[in-house]
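Bumping with the actual sequence this time:
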Amino acid sequence: MVDCSHGNSHKSHLRQLEVAMSLCGQIASGSRQILGTMIESHLVEGRQDYAPGQPVVYGQSITDACLSLAQTEPVLEQLAEARRKRA
């Protein structure tokens, strides 16, 4: 299981895309060492600070910065395609 976030992305949510593409290459090349991935994803990209009494953005994380759903969908499609290519 590979975590595309945190240490592997140096805590930059957009670098999760690079990590996932690296995994796609490994999977498509036949690697069976990778059995799953974890991606930090939410409806809205990034993160926000919570402050009592202040409005919040619906669907945006208040913990770690995340990819948006629109950014995540193609990654999942590419991971699925890599899995189909794996011998």
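The tokens above came from a reply further down the thread. The radius of gyration is 15 Å.
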